[in-house]
Amino acid sequence: MHWMIKCRSKPGTGELRKATIPAHRAHLEKYRDETWFSGPIFTDDGTSAIGSLRFIEFPDRAAAEALIANEPYTQAGGIYGHVTIERWLFGHV
Questions:
Q1: Three-state SS across the chain?
Q2: Model confidence band, residue 36 (pLDDT cutoffs 50, 70, 90)
Q3: Is residue 7 very low, low, confident or very high in pLDDT (cuts 50, 70, 90)?
Q4: Residue 68 predicted with pLDDT over 80
């Protein structure tokens, strides 16, 4: 099953986010084979990261939720203010 995960950062967490980037990237690397796409979401002017978007392949919602629960951005004082996990059908028209 494919999942879309959209995470929005809480306002004022930019510095904490920057400090947590190495742990965040190491966490994502563990899921390289399951990840179709992963990247940050920025403000319109491109100056500040405000979240992330991921398309992953996991057997169920529980696995997708575990990915986010163990995410350093989640654990580092709660950088994410809102997380949406939705089923995504790859190549479905």
A1: CEEEEEEEECCCCHHHHHHHHHHHHHHHHCCCCCEEEEEEEECCCCCCEEEEEEEEECCCHHHHHHHHHCCHHHHCCCCEEEEEEEEECCCCC
A2: very high
A3: very high
A4: yes
- Give the dihedral sign, CA 22/24/29/35: negative
Query: Torsion-angle region of residue 15: left (phi > 0), alpha (psi -120 to 50) or beta?
Result: alpha
C-beta separation of 67 from 56 below 8 A: yes
**Spatial distance between the Cα atoms of 45 and 50, rounded to a whole number of angstroms:** 12
Q: Which amino acid makes up residue 34?
A: E
Residue-level pLDDT at 77: 75
